[in-house]
Specification:
Structural class: alpha+beta
Strand content: 15-25%
Largest sheet: 2 strands, antiparallel
Helix content: 25-40%
Distance between the termini: 51 Å
Strand order of the largest sheet: 1-2
Shape: elongated
Radius of gyration: 21 Å
Number of strands: 2
């Protein structure tokens, strides 16, 4: 993609793009913009309401156990 387009679209290095073939001589490029941080850190605030104590799990296994317990209720 030309530098002038990258600047105009405010693209950063590594910005994900989706290329869609429209026809034999045409394609569409869509910019994939992230809406917020979807990491475990963003989930922790949500999980606090389900915990009886103030200590959050520190391992993936601990989180999975907590989530599975919530499914059974």
């Amino acid at each position: 993609m030309p530098a002038s387009l990258r600047k105009q679209l405010h693209l950063k290095p590594g910005q994900p793009l989706m290329w869609e073939i429209i026809s034999d001589d045409e394609c569409r490029v869509r910019i994939i913009r992230h809406r917020g941080n979807k990491t475990i850190q963003s989930v922790r605030g949500f999980m606090k309401r389900f915990q009886t104590d103030s200590v959050l799990p520190k391992t993936t296994a601990g989180w999975m156990k907590l989530l599975r317990e919530g499914e059974r209720k």
